[in-house]
Amino acid sequence: IAPNPVVQELKLYSDMDLSSGKVRIINSLGVTVMETSYTNQSIEVSSLASGAYTLIFIKGNNQVIKQFVK
Predict the structure, then answer these.
(1) Which of 16, 27, 45, 69 to pair with 33, CA 20 to 30 A apart?
(2) Is residue 8 within 8 Å of residue 48, measured between CB atoms?
(3) What pLDDT is recorded for position 61?
């Protein structure tokens, strides 16, 4: 994921095909603050408050967990 820290758009990079995956973003309190389908190359996160987040990407049986800062 990049950039990290992020201001507006978070981009995901992988050797795996990411289309049709699901993205869940969780704040530092463990609350899900965003859930969306991943249909393009970036996720709009400008509406999130500043802080530390966990991004969970799920596609089929694959799950990737990454941390990022806004």
Answers:
(1) 16
(2) no
(3) 92
**Residue 20 backbone phi and psi in degrees, to 5:** 70, 15
Peptide bond into 5 cis (omega under 30): yes
Distance CA 36, CA 46 (A): 14
Q: CA 42 from chain center: how many Å?
A: 9
Position 27, amino acid: N
Beta bridge partners of 2: 11
Mean pLDDT across the stretch 59-63? 91
Contacts of 59 (CB under 8 A, 6+ apart): 16, 17, 18, 20, 21, 22
